Amino acid sequence: MGNADAIRTERGDWISRHLEEYLSSGGTRGHIMDLADVGGRAFTTHCLIRFRGRNSGKTYVKPLIYGNFGGELVIVASKGGADNHPEWYLNIQASSSVEVQIATQAFAATWREPSDEERHEVWSYMTHLYPPYITYQQSTSRRIPLVMLALGEPIDVFTP
C-alpha cells in the first residue's frame, strides 16, 4: 500500500467523524483541530466546502484545511499525495462558485487558482501551516492544485 493509500485508510473514518461533528455543532466544533500526531500543527484550521457533483448533480460537503492568504482562503487539492485529483477539486472546476463555512459562518464564494510567483508564495505559506503537504507533493508526479476562495454574500450555515 502506498503512502497516500495508507493515509486515506487511516484517516477515512476520522474525516467522516470530523465532518459530522462540524455539521452537527453548527461549526462550534471542528473548525480547529490538533493535527500534531500526523505532522501538522496543534491549531489547524478547517473549513467546509459545499459543491455540486459535476455528473451526479448531488450536493457534497467536505472538511478541508485552509489558510488565509491576502484575504482569500486557500485550500489544497492534495488527496494525501495520490496520483489523481480529489473529486471535490474536479467538481468545483466544473462550476464557477462554491460555498464555504468557516466555524459558525458560511458564505457563497468564487474560486481561482494562483499561478507563477503567487502560486509559489501560497504553496510556501500552506506548507508552513501543514508541513505534510511537502511529503504529499513528493509522493506524486502531479502538481497539487491550490484553490483560492474569495468570500461573497453570507449564507446559512450547513446542516447535516
UniProtKB/TrEMBL annotation:
Organism (species): Mycolicibacterium iranicum
Family in the record: Belongs to the F420H(2)-dependent quinone reductase family.
Protein name: Nitroreductase
Pfam families according to UniProt: F420H2_quin_red
Superkingdom of this protein's organism: Bacteria
PANTHER family named in the record: DEAZAFLAVIN-DEPENDENT NITROREDUCTASE, F420H(2)-DEPENDENT QUINONE REDUCTASE RV1261C
Upper classification of the organism: Bacteria, Bacillati, Actinomycetota, Actinomycetes, Mycobacteriales
Catalyzed chemical reaction(s): oxidized coenzyme F420-(gamma-L-Glu)(n) + a quinol + H(+) = reduced coenzyme F420-(gamma-L-Glu)(n) + a quinone
GO CC, one annotated term: plasma membrane
GO MF term (any one): coenzyme F420 binding
InterPro entries in alphabetical order: F420H2_quin_Rdtase (IPR004378), Split_barrel_FMN-bd (IPR012349)
